[in-house]
Amino acid sequence: MKIEHPYLMFLGDAPDELAAKTAIGIKQWRPEWCVAQLSLPGCQADLGLPEMSIAEAKAAGVKTIVLGVANRGGIIGPAWMETLLAAIDAGMDIANGLHTRLSTIPELVEAANAKGVKLFDVRHFDGKLPVGNGEKRPGKRVLAVGTDCSVGKMYTALALDAEMKKRGMKSTFRATGQTGIFIAGEGISVDAVISDFISGAVETIAPANEPDHWDVVEGQGSLFHASFAGVSMGLIHGSQPDAIIVCHEPTRTHMRGLPGYKLPDLKTTMDVNLMHARLTNPDCVVAGFAINTKSLDDAAAKKLLAEVEAEFGLPCVDPVRTGVASIVDKLQEI
């Protein structure tokens, strides 16, 4: 799979910024590939990119329109079709990270075949995967876990990988979701893998390696989220982590999309994730906490990070505000 850039980031009718986290992540880590954005009426997300029509984007040299929305259920809405057909007619490829496959929409497939453009369904892996075996393999792995969905697990993993590379450490970011795949250029979106093969998929993308090489594995979901705990469990067992990083957003009043479920506290999150991680790696430890303090002012954020660090005796950072250097220091001790 080779997705051509530059990109036009399609925001559709995203109801909030979290719904556009795919686009936000790509723009954050691959800004040089992102030429413009295209929003539909009612869109409440904004990347800060120029707003362009299909015709304007084509004139600006765009090769691919990226569906940058990660909506609940991963559906391609009928309101999007006019825009997607116009993109195909303009000769653009479409890259899609949603559960719904472009290849299952006859109107798009017919148009793409007629124009000779490509439809990429990056969330779906059609290759053969093994069943996980849990056997110890060389190399080191760190996994981001969370109190909830959409709390910064991917950002934390990318920041760790960048900091490790800056220090000359051997490190590879291992993408397990659609946004990570757009950023890394490879990976397997594990939430679309048949449940029996999730741990095997993670063993495949984070294989045996040199003893001093770190695989930084992108986390998904949360063990405490009633909708998505299954994929989180498979990731934990398949990654066989030497260390986990607990990610959290402190202003949430309930699990994302589940008003009836409160977020777990950090101690419970740490203990439950460690218990399950030690099935495949009895030596797994918590190496720190990554708190998304975007909704707090500087003073409140600094106070919270200091309190968590004092309570647990482990590094506590906001990857955006403070960087992740202290967590990498801790990982180098492992």
What would your notes on this structure say?
This protein has helices at 21-29, 54-59, 81-89, 106-115, 153-166, 178-184, 198-205, 229-239, 266-277, 298-312, 325-331; strands at 7-12, 34-39, 64-67, 93-96, 119-121, 140-146, 170-174, 213-217, 243-248, 285-291, 316-317. With 334 residues, it is an alpha/beta fold. The protein has 2 domains: 7-121, NAD(P)-binding Rossmann-like Domain (Rossmann fold); 140-331, Rossmann fold (3-Layer(aba) Sandwich).
List the main descriptive attributes of the protein structure presented here.
single chain, 334 residues, alpha/beta, Rossmann fold, 2 domains, six-stranded parallel sheet, five-stranded parallel sheet, 11 helices, 11 strands, 16% strand, globular
Tertiary shape = globular
CATH C-level category of the largest domain: Alpha Beta
CATH architecture of the largest domain: 3-Layer(aba) Sandwich
Give the structural class. alpha/beta
The succession of helices and strands, N to C, reads EHEHEHEHEEHEHHEHEHEHEH
- Assess the beta-strand content as a share of residues: 15-25%
Question: Low-confidence segments, ≥5 residues, pLDDT <50?
Answer: none
The tally of beta strands, per DSSP, is: 11
Task: Tell me the distance between the termini.
Answer: 35 Å
